[in-house]
Every structure is written in C-alpha cells, then in structure tokens.
Write a structure and sequence with these properties.
The chain is an alpha/beta fold. It is 35% helix and 19% strand. It has a single domain (4-218), classed as TIM Barrel, CATH 3.20.20. The protein is built from eight helices and eight strands. The structure holds D-xylitol-5-phosphate and zinc ion (ZN).
C-alpha cells in the first residue's frame, strides 16, 4: 500500500488560502482533505461547496471531501461540480441500503467513495460496505473539531479492518502526528489526515516528510 499524507485545510490560515495550499503542495502533500460540517451531524460548521471548488480549481492535488453532514446524498451533484476527487460519508446517518445507494451514486459520478466510522462504532460495521468503497476512514477523535487528542483505542479497529480488507485504503483522521501515524501504520492505516500537526508547524515540509517516514518505517502491510 502506498502511504499518503493528507493535510486537513480546517487547520490552515484561511485568510491566506492560496499560499497555504502552495505550502501544502511544496511540503509533499498527496491529497487535500476538506471537512464539510453542517452543525447537525457534528456541533460545528465549516465551509461549503464554493470553498471546495476554489481549492480544486487552484490545486492539482486530489480534493478529498469528508462529509460530516446528515444528508450527504442530496449533494452528490454539488460535490461533483465542486471538483471533489473523493467523498467520505458517515455510515450512521442513514439505514444501510441508503448508504449503499449514496456510495454507488458517488462512484457513478466518477468520484472515489469512502465510509467513515466514528469512534463508538466497531470495525465490523464496515463489512457490508466493502464492495462499494475505495477507502475506509477510521476517526481517531470525535468528529467536529481539529486539534483534539488521538484515541489509542482505535488502533485495534484499524487492524481489524486491515485483516478484513488487505488492499483497501484505510485513512485515519484526528490527532495524527509523526508518533500517532507510526502507531496507525503499524496497525494497517496508509492514508494520514493531519491538520494541526502539519499546518501549525513551522516547517510543514519537514513535518510531512517525518510523518511519511514514520509511517513507512512502522508499516507491516
Ligand atoms: C475533525 C476533522 C479532521 C480535522 C483533523 O472532525 O475530520 O479532518 O481537521 O484535525 P487535527 O489533525 O488537528 O486533529
Ligand atoms: Zn476530516
């Protein structure tokens, strides 16, 4: 599995969005992670499709949208128009059949589909969606805010999903640093979302390189 660094724009300086994106590109980012929050699924709001479109038009990096919203299925066209490369939805926002329909719609529209599990849900919840996804997202904090502390209890969940799906991209999101990326890589994760640890560092290129190296060194898959 290839290791990917995905800086989360939630932690960037939005007054300087263009230069922050150039900073992430120059630092060796592989993917840009964009968190859309509706204030209902999570107790916070972030940005919308206009922001995603501005970013995807400006950068060649893939725009991966993490939908922390109750009705992501309503917005597949908007996400496509906004230039999203991938879309992640949380599996607890609707019954299983509806989630499968949303994931299929995402793929039909040429985007990569992914399912996210909040910390409370077990690895086995991902199983029914495996034929419909390109990536699983294991939340390593409660979704809604950047800058939270990594939850080590999530490591076993990553291992279980890796055993279930040996070639699936497994993304981790929340409290990811060099140290926690190393733990997650050993458990089987290969896509590392990091907001605070990368954008708030003085040397984003050094931090990104260190995080990727820590993951490479620790990986067992
Ligand atoms: C939180 C978001 C994350 C957030 C991560 O709900 O999904 O993508 O930006 O931020 P850090 O890396 O600061 O924990
Ligand atoms: Zn996220």
């Amino acid at each position: 599995m290839k290791i990917f660094a995905a800086p989360s724009l939630l932690a960037c300086d939005i007054m300087n969005l263009a230069s922050e994106i150039r900073r992430a590109e120059a630092a060796g980012a592989d993917i840009l992670h964009l968190d859309i929050m509706d204030g209902v699924y999570v107790p916070n709001m972030s940005f919308g499709f206009g922001f995603v479109k501005a970013v995807s038009s400006f950068s060649k990096l893939p725009a991966d949208v993490h939908m922390m919203t109750v009705c992501p299925g309503k917005y597949i066209d908007s996400l496509k128009d906004a230039g999203a490369w991938g879309v992640t939805v949380h599996h607890d926002i609707a019954p299983r059949d509806e989630i499968i329909k949303i994931l299929s719609d995402i793929r039909k529209n040429g985007m990569r589909a992914s399912v996210a599990l909040r910390p409370a849900f077990p690895a086995s919840d991902i199983e029914p969606f495996l034929p419909y996804i390109d990536m699983a997202l294991v939340m390593t904090v409660e979704p809604g805010f950047g800058g939270q502390r990594f939850m080590p209890d999530m490591l076993e969940k990553i291992s279980e999903i890796r055993r279930m799906a040996p070639s699936l991209d497994i993304q981790v999101d929340g409290g990811i640093t060099c140290e926690t990326a190393s733990l997650c890589a050993a458990a089987g994760a290969n896509v590392f979302v990091a907001g605070t640890s990368l954008f708030k560092s003085d040397d984003m290129a050094l931090e990104t390189a260190k995080m990727k190296k820590a993951a490479e060194d620790a990986r067992k898959y």
